[in-house]
Amino acid sequence: PVHQERSAIRSVAQVADSVQYFQWRKGTGSHEKYHGAGVDHCGHENTRVFRDVARLGEVLEKLDSVVGKYSEAKVAVIYDWENSWAVKHFCGYNNINRDYLGECVKWYEPFYNKGISVDVIPMDADFSKYDLVIAPFLYMLKDGTEKKIEEYVRNGGNFAATYLSGIVDKNDMCYLGGFPASGLKDVFGIWCEETDSLPEGMKNSASFNNTSYDVVHVCDIIHSTGAKVLGKYQSDFYSGMPALTENSYGDGKAYYIAFRNDDKFAADFCNMLIKEIGITPDCFIENENGVDVRKRGNTVFVMNFKDKNSEIKLDKEYKNIITGELLSGQISLPVCGYLILE
């Protein structure tokens, strides 16, 4: 019961304005006749599930103040449906493990773990309100995307793209003149000569900030045409060639990550960007080891996803919206517990 209640509260913390159930009343026939529902076949309210739903309703009634409000994210990760289809269906590059969604999640998590709001946007969204936009595996470009990226960086934005970006247009036709597409070579200050596809189980490595990171599946072999080289490959015939670059373009910067990397690299690289750009957490506490902290308007949601009690320290006095209690200092959250504070 407490697990489903906390999960519903998490949806509200992530900008849902309502929580709805499928289904309200159990059907009497067909494939889903045993599907969970608020009202069971018994037809009355004297069941555990009904009581759980009613209790959640009582909590939601106290959250009218958050409806329509959200925190302004300064970071965005591009997840684009049309790009996901293009990534899924092309043939080549050793038919690599695509996992476009997994790549996007990997670049989302370092900010989530720092308590920093991240918007997930398509490539045709407005970039201008963000301090940083990350585009994992942006294989296909819709009309106008190239120009949007160029204008965003030139006007002071920070844009990071990974391997195999800017390869085809909206019709899945390869760009001529080298990769990434046309003007993006100037934005990133690089050009990609070829791509090495590593068979499953084979690894390369790349250096960054005096640390070596595993490289799997994909290695773009790139040349700097003005970009600063932040990391290099460490083995194979392209040992010593750029693996990570930073290019100043106009008032902004463009970063190119030429290889598929592990979570540790993503975390370390994003932490560097957070410090350099000056991105600050939304709340008083970072998300850590199963504790999820979200801010929506002036309301702070703290949710325990650990399998044990969690200790958190509040930075000031808050009011518990649900109980009216004033809280400060060290607080213990039980398993599946949550707080809604203002």
Question: If you had to describe this structure to a student in words, what would you say it looks like?
Answer:
- The chain is an alpha+beta fold.
- It is built from seven helices and 18 strands.
- The strands form four sheets. Strands 1, 2, 3, 4, 5, 6, 7, 8, 9, 10 and 11 form an eleven-stranded mixed beta sheet that branches. It has a three-stranded antiparallel beta sheet with strand order 12-13-18, covered by helices on one side. A two-stranded antiparallel ribbon has the order 14-17.
Short description:
With about 350 residues, this protein is of the alpha+beta class. It contains 7 helices and 18 strands.
Helical residue percent band: 10-25%
> Structural class, from helix and strand content?
alpha+beta
Radius of gyration from CA coordinates: 24 Å
Largest sheet: 11 strands, mixed
Strand content: 25-35%
Give the overall average pLDDT: 91
Specify the overall morphology.
globular
Low-confidence stretches: none
Order of helices and strands: HHEHHEEHEHEEEEEEEHEEEEEEE
Q: Number of DSSP strands? A: 18
Beginning-to-end CA distance, first to last residue: 25 Å
Q: Give the helix tally.
A: 7
What is this structure's SSE topology?
Elements: H1 2-13, H2 48-60, E1 75-78, H3 81-89, H4 100-113, E2 118-121, E3 132-135, H5 145-154, E4 158-162, H6 184-188, E5 190-197, E6 203-208, E7 211-224, E8 228-233, E9 242-249, E10 252-257, E11 259-261, H7 263-277, E12 291-296, E13 299-304, E14 310-313, E15 318-319, E16 326-327, E17 330-333, E18 338-341
Parallel strand pairs: 1-2, 1-3, 3-4, 4-10
Antiparallel strand pairs: 5-7, 6-7, 6-8, 7-11, 8-9, 9-10, 12-13, 13-18, 14-17, 15-16
Helix pairs in contact: 1-2, 4-7
